[in-house]
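Revision sheet: structure tokens.
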Amino acid sequence: MLKIERIQTGVIQENCYLIYNDTNLLIIDPGDEATKIAALIKKTGKKPIAILLTHTHYDHIGAVEELRHLYTIPVYVSPLEQEWLSNPIFNLSGLGRHNDIADIIVQPAEVEFELTDYNLGGINFSVVPTPGHSIGSVSFVFDDFVVTGDALFKGSIGRTDLHTGDMQQLLHSITTYLFTLPDEFPAYPGHGDATTIEHEKKTNPFFN
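Predicted:
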């Protein structure tokens, strides 16, 4: 049985997730505050084995370098956003949105996702494409829940007015790859509280 822990990081309270089994742990979207993330990892007693990125906006990658070196683990990213990691314009850190955000430059990810099934350290998940918020956005479908990044939120969807954003593409992504999951699946977004697939199908204003 997998466990999931949420850590809210940074000035805009991005959700970093730790997902772990009896032995191993995955870090999803370490946006900021590496020390805080590392403290919770230590508390779990599990071994970090990889960093997974739903997309590469600055608020989801700010702690990547520190954690990848602390644990000597690989980073996984969509090939469509590999170059964004080191480009402060594409990852939005260089646009002056927050005065206390410096340009973020992350070294290339060791692994570029394929849209397929993975087993890392006994943790099974599928990578599904959910572009629209950004061109390389993906979601991670585990055995009984999904991590949606900035595609689907509780009562909302990701913004589509940024580089490569596309409203119709995002709506199609959600309908095709998320709303076809079991109704009872919890959905863990990049910001805000968790929801369920059923709740969003029935109440999300972008689909009703």
